[in-house]
Amino acid sequence: MQRSRHLVAVVDDEASVRKALRRLFTSAELDCSVFASGRAFLDAVRQEGGPDCAVIDLHMPGLTGLDVQRELRSAGASVPTIIITAHDEPDSRARCLAAGAIAYLRKPFDDKALLDLVSSTFHASAN
Fold it and tell me: What pLDDT digit, counting tens, does each position of 64-115 carry?
């Protein structure tokens, strides 16, 4: 069955962030699935296919957002990813973008900026 709305995945170890982002995407009339770990997200991608876009926390226990991005790329999964972080480090942005992320945002970020980035991934994939 084909989805009528775009699906955004949120991968973050903090329940409050998952809840807030689910509300944001739902209010923007997007479907949203949430994952508490990179491993859970990658398992879902393998079993169900990838979402239209993924918002992934950089610093998580186990697999980091950068690890998840690299695994997606090595598996040939074409999931546009936006990396988010509260703990910015000097070379993090460059490393994430080099690994294939389409954007890198520092928490707290502007909701509209995130929605615009997510929306741009849908338009890019339609072309």
Answer: 999 999 999 888 888 999 999 998 888 999 999 998 999 999 999 999 999 9
What are the extents of the domains in the chain? Answer: 7-119
Token pair recorded at residue 82: 């936006």
Strongest mean pLDDT among 4-8, 79-83, 97-101, 118-122: 79-83
My answer on whether omega of the bond before 80 falls inside 30° of 0, hence cis, is: no
DSSP state of 111: H
Which tokens belong to 49? 């296919």
Which CATH number is 7-119 given? 3.40.50.2300
The b-or-e profile of 34-64 (16+ CB within 10 A means b, else e) is bbbbbbebbebbeeeebbbbbbbbbbbeebb
Q: Cis peptide leading into 51, omega within 30 of 0? A: no
pTM over the 0.85 mark: yes
For residue 10, give the nearest of 44, 97, 61 by alpha carbon.
44
